[in-house]
């Protein structure tokens, strides 16, 4: 994959995680659920993130980044 494709996959995973976490709650979502929603394999998640906690942290960082840049 190109760097651009890898970045798009990462963003798709973060989008899918955000949507599923809001719908079901973090504890009720598996990495497999997120992978299916994003249209990738579970292995793709582990390429980008160590575990669900790291994925959650990245999602939260993405959500707060625009706020911090505006300060």
UniProtKB/TrEMBL annotation:
Its main location: nucleus. One of its GO terms (cellular component) is nucleus. It is found in: Nucleus. Pfam families: TetR_N (PF00440). Residues 7-67 form the HTH tetR-type domain. InterPro entries: DNA-bd_HTH_TetR-type_CS (IPR023772), Homeodomain-like_sf (IPR009057), HTH-type_TetR-like_transc_reg (IPR050109), HTH_TetR (IPR001647). Keywords: DNA-binding, Transcription, Transcription regulation. GO terms for molecular function: DNA-binding transcription factor activity; transcription cis-regulatory region binding. This is HTH tetR-type domain-containing protein. The lineage of its organism: Eukaryota, Metazoa, Ecdysozoa, Arthropoda, Crustacea.
